[in-house]
Specification:
4 strands; binds inosine-5'-diphosphate; binds magnesium ion
Length: 139
């Protein structure tokens, strides 16, 4: 099977809890190769742009505040079946529903502060990767 990419962020709650190292170790042990990685911080406006698809949802304003509340680590990851396998590794959006051993089960605090983002399709992985990285930064 051909390798493809997914896009992910270690979210502000996991960064504040000093869980970035443990999370990156889990990602690498699950067979994902890091193609690009950046420590950065979103403004409220940039967070709003990234999550524009959720503009009409009741939690949109709080989500933008939370996602701009501290640093994040953005990454492009490569693996066979990257998008689906990564969604399996992070677990359900709500950590109370996430399977045992998943990143969200282990590290998430709430349905909002849920430790990790994972792209939901090959198309969005590319759009989201381009949101954070220029072509020169991807190798
Ligand atoms: P996903 O991150 O598992 O793909 P989405 O439905 O795309 O979940 O939602 C994007 C993000 O918005 C979630 O990861 C979470 O941080 C936040 N979120 C989703 N649903 C809720 C909610 O009901 N209340 C508060 N925040 C939410
Ligand atoms: Mg989503």
């Amino acid at each position: 099977m051909a390798k493809n990419i997914t896009f992910t962020m270690i979210k502000p709650d996991a960064m504040a809890d000093q869980n970035a190292g443990a999370i990156i170790k889990m990602i690498q042990e699950a067979g994902f190769k890091i193609k690009a990685m950046k420590l950065t911080k979103l403004s409220n406006e940039r967070a709003g742009e990234f999550y524009a698809v959720h503009r009409e949802r009741p939690f949109y304003g709080e989500l933008c505040e939370y996602m701009s509340s501290g640093p994040i680590i953005a990454m492009i990851l490569e693996k066979e079946n990257a998008v689906t396998d990564f969604r399996t590794l992070i677990g359900a959006t709500n950590p109370q529903e996430a399977a045992e051993g998943t990143i969200r089960k282990l590290f998430a605090k709430s349905i909002e502060a849920n430790a990790m983002h994972g792209a939901d399709s090959d198309e969005n992985a590319i759009v989201e990767g381009n949101f954070f990285f220029s072509s020169l930064e991807k190798f």
